[in-house]
Amino acid sequence: MRGYAGIRMxxxxxxxxxxxxxxxxxxxxxxIDIERRQGDFPKATWHAxxxxxxxxxxxxxxxYLGMAQNPRVLAAMHGAIDAAGAGSGGTRNISGTxxxxxxxxxxxxxxxxxxxxxxxxxxxxxxxxxxxVLPKLFPGLVILSDELNHASMIEGIRHGKxxxxxxxxxxxxxLRALLEAVAPGRPILIAFESIYSMDGDFGRMAxxxxxxxxxxxxxxxxxxxxxxxxGPRGGGVSERDKLAHRIDLINGTLAKAYGVMGGYVAASAxxxxxxxxxxxxxxxxxxxxPAVAAAAAESIRVLKQxxxxxxxxxxxxxxxxxxxxxxxxxxMDYGSHIVPVHVGNPVKCKLLSDMLLDQHGIYVQPxxxxxxxxxTERLRFTPSPVHTPELMDALVKAMDDLxxxxxxxxxEMSA
Length: 415
Prior knowledge:
With about 425 residues, this protein is an alpha/beta fold. Helix content is about 40%, strand content about 15%. The chain has 14 helices and 16 strands. The strands form four sheets. Strands 4-12-11-10-7-5-6 form a seven-stranded mixed β-sheet, sandwiched between helices. A hairpin with a 4-residue loop joins strand 8 (about 195) and strand 9 (about 200). Helix 3 runs parallel beside helix 11 (about 290-305), helix 4 (about 125-135) runs parallel beside helix 5 and helix 13 (about 345-360) crosses helix 14 (about 390-405). The longest helix has 19 residues, at about 310-325. The radius of gyration is 23 Å and the shape is globular.
């Protein structure tokens, strides 16, 4: 038997090298230790590495509407904790389905005007589990996926091990060509997003629906960054544009505009039943705690009834874009609620983020590869209804000062 003495792998050195590679490229991710303050959002306490505690303003959170501190949401969560305790006690199939989960799924089905909805522990898992199981439900399935789809969609499609083709972002001519190349009679699914969160642009939902109907394809849309934010009741872009009835499967999250945690798909009752019965990511995962389900359901009810927060958020996003653009900063503006500022250099992007935090108490996380392509590094601001004019003044002044310090160009970037 061959011996291995003297040729053992140096695992520790390999890890050192892998981590150093990230540092060298300027894309090593640093987690900022913050403590959100209920009732005082977007203020938070930063627990700095030197042991000090400083007040900061969060400008990059996904709690788009501040619903994580909404009194009705908190009351619903407290009530469910008092009634049912902390955890669910099991998977949905084994003791983990409660009245809170059923009520949440009913709210979601109503939100999207679908027959049913299915809740997962996150939207990532919902995408992965659903897209990976669809090829089993429709043998021979061909999936056509937008090239900028989220990592969770890419993973789900990959795990499904079916034939797949990537169409250029929002390129309907390319999508049509791919559809025409599929043999007649084969099942087809077109997967795309309603809002692509890194650029803030919209998917071409109406045109995709038209092509899907022409070629007999199913439609799957990720509305993660749109639910709660668009439409008269917060049903997303599909509701705003009156297209929900033309979408076969809608994926969404409870962790962004709704301020809680979890993900879901909404579809026909038969489709949901099949996913529920076959998707491993649903079957073998402990269900959401009842308190989380109760809070999410209440958040959905609140935002169905009143669009004041949505309107104010859009107003604040528009004002911030206008003010940063007036400074000559390269804003990417597609009309959504997301405010990306193009930096284009990973080291300077991280430096700018660090200086905003250290010098101005402003927290915005740098967005680098692999989240976005190399050379497109950016800061991504998410103004909320509770970011006051004074907080915006401070942000704009800081960006003006630091942009110059970092020797960055002020050439405007058009959408």
